[in-house]
Amino acid sequence: MTKQIVNSKAGDDEASHGKNFPAPLDMKTLKKFTDIVGEDSVFDSYEDRLKFSRDRLPFTTFHLRAGTVTEALPSAVLKPRTEDELINVLALANKSNIAVIAYGAGSGVLGGALPVCGEIIINLENFLGLPKIDQENRMVTVSSAFNGGELEKLLNEEGYTCGHHPQSLHISTVGGWVACRGAGQMSSRYGKIEDMVLGVRALLPEGKVVDIKPVSRRSVGPGILDFLIGSEGTIGILTQVTLKIWKLPEVRLPAVVAFPSLTAGLTAMREIMQADLRPSVARLYDAQESKEKAHKNDDLSVNSIMCILEFVGSKKLANTEFELGLEICARHGAIKLSDQSYEKWQKVRFESYSAEFIAKGGYVETIEITGLWTKIPVLYEEIKSKINELDERIYFGAHWSHIYSEGSCQYMTFRIPNIGDEDLALKLHLEIWKITQTITLKHAASIAHHHGAGVFRNPWIEEELGGGLEIIKATKRGLDPNNILNPGKLGLPARPGSVLPTDSMT
Questions:
Q1: How far apart are CA 349 and CA 337, in angstroms?
Q2: What is the per-residue pLDDT across 309-337, written as a single tens digit (0 to 9) for each?
Q3: What are the φ/ψ torsions at residue 213 (nearest 5 degrees)?
Q4: Which pTM was predicted?
Q5: Rounded distance, CA 467 to CA 463, Å?
Q6: Please, what are the domains in the chain?
Q7: Is 334 helix (H, G, I), strand (E, B) or coil?
Q8: Within a 10 A sphere around the Cβ of 348, how many other Cβ atoms?
Q9: How many Cβ atoms are within 10 Å of 82's Cβ, its own excluded?
Q10: Please, where are the H alpha helices in 275-339?
Q11: CB-side exposure of 471: number of CA atoms within 13 Å?
Q12: Phi/psi at 26 (nearest 5 deg)?
């Protein structure tokens, strides 16, 4: 049994955390870890432990602002420098029966890096070294701890791109992308991260090295890579990743269009992908988001559904795709606007505005789901209707920015203004999650497209995987019998005494 979240007021010292928030490691055990990584790589002060007690899960941010504690503290923070050090840390953790969490940049929004039972945080920021670019084979091998924005900068200097540009590009790591099956803003051309990974190097729970070499496909057993991509640190700790890379495009051809209806826009997006076109950007906004994202000079009074497109590549090929794409849009009633909305998006595409809204007492949540084209319209309308019924003060907007031949990701933003009732707002936030995930499963769609599962999607994972969770559990038991690696995440068992945010959802 896991303990219920303690709804105690948060203070500024360790005593305020109470019995559910573990103390630092005992000195004897801490000394053993110190002998492995060195004194300058061990941190056990209250401030250091508090710093690594959260990622960007909105739930914990809201409760922190409300003065309630929802997360456990780690028992220590380690920063190993070498693979040998990490191997020895894992061996000692198993021997001491202490759980660990691999921590990159902490940019996850589902609580995948939250300590729930006094785990040791293994901060991988010292696992660096320059990426190795292989131009002939068009790939790059990079440390899992390498910053995404820095990787893209280095590749650009050599005339390449990694093709993976999430909004979190500059505050996330390559290992984080792989761990949660991330997607970048150009996924419709380059694919999601699982389409880019050629090989990985990882450590299993007891320290054994798994080195999956980068090759051009293989036919030797099931896809072992898939057990690590998206595993969120529950099965292995990624130390190195090899990714595909692409030449920087010769040209970029943007277009902004407006459709007469959402149905017309969705149909055009489907036909573009099913015509084997490869837009680097395809962002279709509903009426609500179109009003916000459009440049002030654009007229959406008649055609109210805006879409930003971009085609890139060699000049001849990009021009052909551009013309064919606009022909499809025109067949569905689209009118061409100026490029100003595209330029506006380019300037802010790696920025987040939620912090400003939250600072004013509001609540912001983003939830991404994915489904087939035949399911997307009903998913949108039913979720929107249920949210409006829940409370008319809740803002709901959606866009479709990861499109494929068979379907699309539906990315939804929810905002609750400062309504002056913290308890009600917190309840509404949880109800938003229950509504979106329940309706998604009802229509045989998937509850996540690229944010991962973390701990916050635990209540729905078993139904989502349709029996597949038992395969993951069996793998976890076989590889991690002591449940050392990131317990309680991805629908997997927690350790006794764990404090899980999702306890309040049941």
A1: 20
A2: 999 999 999 999 999 999 999 999 999 99
A3: -70, 145
A4: 0.94
A5: 8
A6: 14-123+470-505 (3.30.43.10), 132-247 (3.30.465.10), 251-348 (3.30.70.3450), 355-451 (3.30.300.330)
A7: coil
A8: 11
A9: 12
A10: 287-293, 315-331
A11: 8
A12: -65, 155
